[in-house]
């Protein structure tokens, strides 16, 4: 049966600092701070051998996936500037720049 508490420090919750500052991660695509929802995205798709993950807003990930195929994402790798050279993606990032970190909206469907 699984333990509810660590066997080494039964009072570990009492030692945790409640007022510790929370550091918000920056979105890999748009550069804004992430809100409550963070998606850990594979810049190189897992199906193409990608292992690294980066923090992103859900709306940014949806837009990225709608505009690029897995093959294209594999070619770009972690080159954000290369991705932002795409006019649709650049337009999206410019539009979302002043939005709240937890902003959501419907995104375009995946192009075929």
TrEMBL record:
It comes from Acidisoma cellulosilyticum. Keywords: Endonuclease, Hydrolase, Nuclease. GO terms for molecular function: endonuclease activity. The keyword Hydrolase applies. It comes from the Bacteria. This is HNH endonuclease.
């Amino acid at each position: 049966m699984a333990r509810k508490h660590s066997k080494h420090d039964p009072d570990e919750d009492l030692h945790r600092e409640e007022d510790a500052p929370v550091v918000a991660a920056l979105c890999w695509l748009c550069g804004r701070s992430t809100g409550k929802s963070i998606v850990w995205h594979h810049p190189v798709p897992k199906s193409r051998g990608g292992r690294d993950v980066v923090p992103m807003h859900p709306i940014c990930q949806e837009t990225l996936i709608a505009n690029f195929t897995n093959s294209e994402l594999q070619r770009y790798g972690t080159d954000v500037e290369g991705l932002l050279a795409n006019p649709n993606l650049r337009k999206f990032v410019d539009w979302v720049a002043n939005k709240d970190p937890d902003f959501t909206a419907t995104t375009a469907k995946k192009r075929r």
